[in-house]
Amino acid sequence: MSELATTYWSSIAGWSPVCFMALGYAFFALNRNAALKRVVWPFFLGAVCVYFLIRMALHGPIQILFVIGPILAFIFFVGLRAAVFCPSCGSTFRNMNLWGGAKLCPKCGANCGEDA
Fold it and tell me: I want to staple 86 with a disulfide (CB 3.0 to 4.6 A). Which of 2, 28, 46, 105 is the partner?
């Protein structure tokens, strides 16, 4: 493979995840379908965590996975627990109280708890 082709594929491999994350951000910011967001969110968050895990495995010593793996698992858990999608207006926000408490939408004031 020529040097130009290698540079091309390196560029594609480097920018594709960035575009994926930007499109994901746009999806969660602009889409108003809360049910669809609840389905897509775990897969999106998991894909981002796996991307960073692979990136660390390819560009660092393999022992770094013993440190980065549990950190990414914690980030995944917190990301799943903190993301709240309002069923009324469809906005996405973070609940900083991970273990319960009132979840009121800051945009419309609707109840966004588990019983809503």
Answer: 105
Helices within the chain (DSSP H only): 3-30, 34-59, 65-82
Q: Is residue 26 part of a domain?
A: yes
DSSP state of 94: E
Q: Which two tokens stand for residue 7?
A: 């540079």
Q: Of the spans 2-11, 55-64, 66-75, which averages the highest pLDDT?
A: 66-75
Q: Are strands 92-94 and 83-85 parallel, antiparallel or unpaired?
A: antiparallel
CA–CA distance from 36 to each of 31, 85, 113 (Å)? 9, 10, 17
Query: In the 8-state DSSP scheme, what is residue 38?
Result: H
19, part of any domain: yes
pLDDT tens for 16-34 read 888 888 999 899 889 899 8
